[in-house]
Write a structure and sequence with these properties.
heterodimer, A: 322 residues, mainly alpha, 12 helices, flat, B: 291 residues, MetI-like fold, 71% helix, disordered N terminus
Chain lengths: 322, 291
């Protein structure tokens, strides 16, 4: 298992490297790092910055200089804020990791529950309703869902009941002066997590239902029934456990989707995470933030895929990782 | 040349397929609603209650009423009419992205699968790159650099979307390649191009058609998301996405109803397209399991 993990990580290094080169060339071609200075009266400023940032060198040379800096922890300086890019990304990572953590926990529990329930009560009214809802969940733009949620769950109750405070907040992760895990945090968390996960809950519950039905129709479940194994035990021990392996794979493979969803979610709820950082940097042409951002996210997705493979092997003993 | 494998009695493959599609009630309903939407949007000049962009500043924003079924916006424009006109752009983007992505993806996937070797390997590793960076980030980057004209949007969205169908087609071609009828074609001296087009393609018809619907549905949603982030269709051109993003500031104001309608139009359209896709999948693959 360990050798497999190490080998997978080593194998994904070239992929991430190629990705970084492609992205480097693409961002250099579309952004002008000196855009702000172009209007400067003093032509020597432009020249000096060109030399300082190494922009007079060829693109491959620039790339290797940049890569060297990236690997040694020198990620450059943001042109927007003048801050250290590594610090900015690490800072933005924290709220984002919280959202991802709660998002995955919430989505897996809800989707898992729906999947098992729908599969067991196949073609019942509840199953049909849940299936219909999952169709809707897949078909709606998540950001619109988020805005409607704000209106219906935060703004409307406040107007209706004349509350001074909304029940659910929709700005940031904490009220000013608050921190840590408390009720205030949860009231901030509900809407962003719902927005982030609506599509995933819909997709995962449909996938989970299918693989659960698969398991329920299998021979080992029939054997267990014939042996007189209690129903609950068949459902949870035999069927659910076996349909968990493909489920975990799908969850981990959708990691890139989750990171993409953050861009929208953090924008709606003004959460100062990675998604916000990306958008702010893109809109201000802050190319020195964009590149490390893309690499950090790509690395995170690769790690998620690795977790998927290892999770599969743990859950399904027939799979041997070598 | 048969498009379906199962043909009941005297009924031809295509007829049987159409019959199965008709029996899929949701797909049928989806088709009807989608056709109505397409007609209403592209016939907006004749159907819509008001001409595009006609303002009534004295009227201003009004809630839905009999005079204006979906209300009016802050410039007093009839919102239903605006939505119908905007629908042309959203539907066209969905359609063209689906076609371009599917054609490119099928061609690349078929070559990668059939020719294989280094070329195939390189192509597939290239599609891997798209899996590890969030699509929305790449799209925003590209549109920020290239500008957001409708043609650019279609090309950039297709540029991401083709990788999915390419993977599916490649895996199908890899298994078809080992089939006996392909060997037979080779032995009789059929050219590679002819094998791909005449022998492989008909067997891929099912997944290709289904993919067109999937790609169209996701393109419409992605365009709206990009609009919200500021990289979608730019005013004065309108799409459901940019109407939605313009209404996004209305949360908590009395005009919030303007936020609901563009989203509902997108939702209904995507639902219809997905139902049609499901119906097609079942119709073209009678042995396939329903997910």
């Amino acid at each position: 298992m360990l050798t497999y993990a190490v080998r997978r990580v080593l194998l994904s290094v070239p992929i991430v490297l190629i990705a970084s080169f492609v992205l480097f060339v693409a961002t250099r071609a579309t952004f002008d790092p000196l855009g702000k200075l172009r209007q400067s009266r003093d032509p020597s400023v432009l020249h000096r910055e060109t030399i300082r940032l190494g922009l007079d060198k060829s693109v491959p040379e620039q790339y290797f200089l940049w890569l060297k800096g990236f690997v040694t922890g020198d990620w450059g300086v943001s042109t927007r804020t003048g801050g250290d890019v590594r610090k900015m990304i690490l800072q933005a990572l924290w709220p984002t990791l919280q959202l991802i953590f709660w998002g995955i926990v919430f989505a897996v529990i809800i989707a898992g529950f729906i999947a098992i329930y729908s599969a067991v009560k196949q073609y019942s009214l509840a199953d049909h309703t849940l299936t219909a809802l999952s169709y809707v969940g897949i078909a709606l733009p998540a950001f619109w869902f988020g805005l409607v949620l704000i209106q219906l769950l935060a703004v409307l109750p406040r107007q209706q009941f004349g509350l001074t405070d909304p029940l659910l907040y929709f700005v940031g992760l904490h009220s000013p002066g608050q921190s840590g895990f408390n009720l205030d945090y949860l009231r901030h968390l509900v809407l962003p997590v719902l927005t982030l996960t609506i599509t995933l809950v819909a997709m995962w519950s449909r996938f989970g239902r299918a693989s659960m039905l698969d398991a329920l129709g299998s021979e080992y479940v029939r054997t267990a029934r014939a042996k007189g194994v209690p129903r609950r035990r068949i459902l949870l021990r035999h069927a659910a456990r076996n349909s968990l392996a493909p489920f975990v794979t799908v969850v981990a493979l959708d990691a890139a989707l989750l990171f993409g969803g953050l861009v929208v979610t953090e924008q709606i709820y003004s959460i100062p995470g990675m998604g916000r950082l990306f958008l702010d940097s893109l809109l201000t042409g802050d190319v020195f933030v964009l590149l490390p951002w893309l690499l950090v996210v790509a690395a995170a997705v690769v790690v998620c895929n690795l977790i998927a493979d290892i999770g599969y092997a743990i859950l399904d003993p027939r799979v041997r990782l070598r | 040349m048969s498009t379906g494998t199962a043909s009941a009695g005297q009924i031809s493959g295509t007829r049987a397929m159409l019959r199965r599609f008709r029996h899929h009630r949701l797909a049928l309903a989806g088709t009807v609603v989608l056709v109505l939407l397409v007609v209403a949007c592209f016939g907006a000049t004749w159907i819509a209650p008001a001409k595009q962009g006609v303002q009534d500043l004295a009227l201003g924003p009004t809630a839905p009423s009999w005079a204006h079924l979906l209300g009016t916006d802050e410039l007093g424009r009839d919102y239903l009419s605006e939505l119908l006109y905007a629908g042309r752009m959203s539907l066209a983007i969905g359609f063209f992205v689906a076609v371009v992505a599917t054609v490119v993806g099928t061609a690349v996937g078929a070559v990668a699968g059939y020719v294989g070797g280094v070329v195939g390997e390189v192509i597939m590793r290239l599609t891997d790159l798209f899996l590890i960076v969030p699509a929305i980030a790449i799209l925003a980057l590209a549109l920020n650099g290239l500008g957001s004209s409708p043609v650019t949007i279609v090309l950039v969205l297709s540029g991401i979307s083709w990788t999915y169908i390419a993977r599916v087609v490649r895996s199908q071609v890899l298994s078809l390649r080992e089939k006996e009828f392909i060997d037979a074609a080779k032995v009789t001296g059929t050219s590679t191009a002819r094998i791909l087009v005449r022998h492989m393609l008909p067997n891929l018809a099912g997944i290709i058609t289904v993919n067109i619907s999937l790609a169209a549905a996701s393109a419409i949603i992605v365009e709206s998301t990009l609009s919200f982030l500021g990289f979608g269709v730019q005013p004065p051109r309108t799409s459901w996405g940019n109407m939605l993003s313009q209404a996004s500031g209305l949360v908590g104001t009395p005009q919030v109803y303007l936020l609901y309608f563009p989203g509902l139009f997108i939702l209904v359209t995507v639902l219809c397209v997905n139902f049609i896709g499901d119906g097609l999948r079942d119709a073209l693959d009678p042995q396939g399991r329903q997910l």
